[in-house]
Amino acid sequence: CETCSKEAAKYRCPRCMKYSCSLLCVKKHKLALSCNGVRDKTAFVSVNEFTDLNLLSDYRFLEDVGRTADAAARHCIVHSPATKRLLYCLRNKARGCNIELKTLPVGFTKRRENSTTFNSMENKFYWHLKLVFPHCHAEYTLKGVPDDKTLADILKPYIDPVESDPVVCQRLKIYTASPQSDVRILMKIENRSRNSVRYNELDASRSLLDNLKGKVIIEYPTLFVVLKTLKNDMVVLGQ
């Protein structure tokens, strides 16, 4: 068992492939790793390891996607003039800021989660933002983040040794204990093939709007906060 290291393993998590010996250890590993225990249907499988079972799984996955897309197309909200006007306004304002904002059909999780708005009086975006800390397997969702706020200020409540929340600080100890100069903020580049994933490195001293200019965003930005010495396989564009 990879949780208690005492008993013989009986179960294997379909999501992260961790071995467990009991229901208690299964629950502990889910809590510690923020794992939902659901198999990742889109996980990469090399040609050498591809079997008939993988083929069947892919076929069923495509069927599920087809059903979801069809249900979303029939949804009454997708045909609502108010919804279409709101999305058109968001995309148009983003285009004016040199940001290519793409929205998903109703029914997709990111479309349902997205709370991004544009304040016409202030001429400012208030973004729905997701922060991912891969070294601690932690994710945080922020709502109503003004586009003129710097990335350094956005991260202060999480990784600043003085200003961060004590509970969050404990969970992200590896970040708070590291020099701030080692922290890197990355954003995945969209519209690339799955076997050629690259990231843009963002400037923490600049505003969120400045960092998003010239980039493609699907629904809302997802920022990966990594340490320079532990970036693993996250390759920055140009490297």
What structural class do the secondary elements suggest?
alpha+beta
Summarize the amount of helix as a percent range: 25-40%
CATH superfamily of the largest domain: Phosphatidylinositol 3-kinase Catalytic Subunit, Chain A, domain 1
**Spatial separation of the terminal alpha carbons:** 38 Å
Low-confidence stretches: none
Query: What kind of sheet is the major sheet?
Result: 6 strands, mixed
H/I helix tally: 8
The count of strands amounts to 10
What does this structure look like?
There is one protein chain. The chain has 239 residues and is α+β, with helices and mostly antiparallel strands. It has two domains: 11-62, no CATH class; 78-227, Ubiquitin-like (UB roll). Helix content is 33%, strand content 20%. It has helices at residues 23-33, 52-74, 81-96, 109-113, 151-159, 166-171, 173-176, 208-212, and strands at residues 11-12, 19-20, 100-102, 117-119, 124-133, 138-146, 183-188, 199-202, 216-218, 222-227. The two termini are 38 Å apart. The mean pLDDT is 85.
Topology record:
Blueprint: E1 11-12, E2 19-20, H1 23-33, H2 52-74, H3 81-96, E3 100-102, H4 109-113, E4 117-119, E5 124-133, E6 138-146, H5 151-159, H6 166-171, H7 173-176, E7 183-188, E8 199-202, H8 208-212, E9 216-218, E10 222-227
Parallel strand pairs: 3-9, 5-10
Antiparallel strand pairs: 1-2, 4-5, 5-6, 7-8, 7-10
